[in-house]
Amino acid sequence: MSEHWSNNDRGYRLKMWLDLVDQNIVENYSNYRIRVFLVSGGWSFAEYNCTGFIDFDGGRRYGFSIGNLGAGQTQQLLDETYKVWHNNDGTKRFGIMAQLNGQGGYSPNTLVINGFDVEVPAIARASTSDGFEAYFGQQVTINIDKRNDAFRHKVLYKFGVKSGVIGENVDTSVTWTVPTSLTSELGTDKKHKGTLVIETYSGSTKIGQVEYGIVLKINDTNGDVKPTFQSITLTETNQTVRNVMGSNTTFLQILSNIQCTFVGAVGSFGVGIKRYHAEIVGKNISIDDNNGRFGVMNFTGDLTISAYVVDERGLKSDVKSVNIRVLPYFSPTIFFTADRVGQNASQIKLSTTYKVANLKVDDVQKNSVSVKFSTSEDGGKTFVLNEGSNSNFGSNQTVEEVNRIGILTGDFSPKNTYTIRATISDKLSPPVSYDVPVSTEQVVVEYDRNGVGIGKVRTKYKVEVAPGDVSIDDGVYRIKDKEIQNHQLTEKNGTCLKVNSGDANNLLKTGFYNVNDCANMPNNDRQWWYLTVISNADTYVMQQANSFFNDKIYTRQKRGNQWTNWVALQQEVKPVEPKFPDTEWSKSNGKMTWRVSARVLYISINFTAENEGTIVGGFPAKYLEHYPDSLMLSGVDFSLEERRNLLFQVNLDGTIHVLNTVKGRSIRTVVTIPI
To answer: Residue 357 burial (CB < 10 Å; 0-12/13-18/19+)?
Structure first.
């Protein structure tokens, strides 16, 4: 600090303090603090208008005034800090003076601190540049703004624990290709901050340096930094299907469960793989881990499986795809009729219709069919395989036949009834059986001393009526004068009526149906449904549809000639009791109160800070049990003073720490935390 005085007038003098505060090397300026005082020796004045000014660094900078001063007092007239800009070489000299114009009388006349020059300490001028962002592998140009033509520069970088020289004896620019080897410093991040250093030299003398922040990052679109994988391998996990099909690209509806394995997956620049993703395109089925399984596929056709990986930096690989085929599959079906033939009606003729799934791969049939017939004389309790029957059949080429004719081996007494069982199997499903009864030879009446047979030969009961013999009156069937059901609600074996194609709008008769590939089902879903139809007339019908694959239920009605829309029946949902019930307000530590309402923790804070960091209280730690770590929150201080954001640390033990309090300041705010 330097002190300077004016002339003396009636004991009054001006005093000036001049201080060098600091210097900015990069911007090339110094800050000077100027303070001016009026000092009274023994005189005083009041209600005068004395004005003054400062001439500083080539111009009039500041004015001041005073109206009153007591005897023997000193009053500050000016306190300003001024930015003094240096020359390009860092040198600076400036002039300064001060003057007060009084009014005479009891005030001074003119007081002047004569002008003088100030030699400012020179600033060693460092050249400047700019920070930048760049991709690894990208070439960047670093421009340098130098303050002296003679200056030269050394340019360096710091990135993580690595550093290096970009260029030496650099004039005004240097190019740098960002090394991809620096990605090792990223960890699992996509970008990281580093430092650009510009050292300025005059000859061999270093006169200063500046540092700038730089950001080096991975280019997501650059194939060189993406994770990669060689391929995906598809494996059939259903051992039975794998043994039959022997293919990694052809699978079966319902039965197959495909496992997807990623081969040769690696992340970019040493990071691991975070996620594996594969999906059956358009079917909303996907996996997100290696060796994952897609599960049941209730669809058929030529499909595509697309796959990619994501590394620990969140970078996604290119997508690779594999084409597959899903063949339709269904359990074997069989139907046949059995009739007595021959001179004595002692032979049984069969007419058989069967079908198994057609599983051709590259024109090779992978499925096969086997049909075997057995007979029973005890009402179906025990069966004996009918060996040598020309109705028995097996093939690995033919998958369906209609009305295949055959004769069972052996004689079947016309006096006895028999049950004929057909068992069909393929390579994938358990055997399926279908039974048909064969009655005695048809007669009107037959009797002996033990009983009578009506419409059949009597065999063991006193009265026997041939199966199907009922009374018929005007098309109405009766047993013991009681009408029996004339409309078929199910298949003969009690299973649903099968509808494998068509339009649900045409299913107007009461019954229980199993439909597939039908139009106008809920959501236009043509997959499998259970359908219940209740008909009052063809124009007034109710339908209820139950999904084969989940518990969703839909209903609709036909009124007049118009179908309503399908409506989903909502299942009962029991309300979930909240884990943390509402509470009343509770006080903690005299600085806060808290309560729970509607699964939100409300914290009201009201206190005067005693220091710069304060623990204001706490609440039960159970309300934070689902948070993994302490919470950092902000809130607005409710005050008439300048608005201020408060920072809070909420610890897992329930304590709250206000981080940026000011001693003596009142704090009022409310913090909310979902629980």
So the answer is: buried
pLDDT tens digits for range 192-237: 999 999 999 988 888 888 999 999 998 877 767 789 999 999 999 9
- Is residue 505 within 8 Å of 563, Cβ to Cβ? yes
The domain locations on the chain are 2-120, 133-223, 226-327, 338-438, 471-573, 586-674
What does the alpha-carbon distance between residue 395 and residue 339 come to, in Å, rounded to a whole number? 25
Helix (H) or strand (E) holding 244: helix 239-245
Question: Does the pTM of the predicted model rise above 0.70?
Answer: no
184 alpha carbon, distance to own chain's centre: 28
Backbone angles phi, psi at 492, to 5 degrees: -60, -30
- Dihedrals phi, psi of 241, to nearest 5 degrees: -65, -40
Task: Compute the distance between CA of residue 224 and CA of residue 583 in angstroms, rounded to an integer.
Answer: 58
Alpha carbons 179 and 184: distance in angstroms, whole number: 10
Q: Is 515 exposed, middle or buried (0-12, 13-18, 19+ CB in 10 A)?
A: buried
Confirm if 636 and 646 have CB atoms less than 8 A apart.
yes
**Cα angle: 194, vertex 197, 200; to 5 degrees:** 175
More confidently predicted of 441 and 251: 251
| Beta strand pairing call for 393-395 and 369-376 | antiparallel
Domain 133-223 in CATH 3.20.20.140? The answer is: no
Please name the CATH architecture into which domain 2-120 falls.
Answer: Sandwich (2.60)
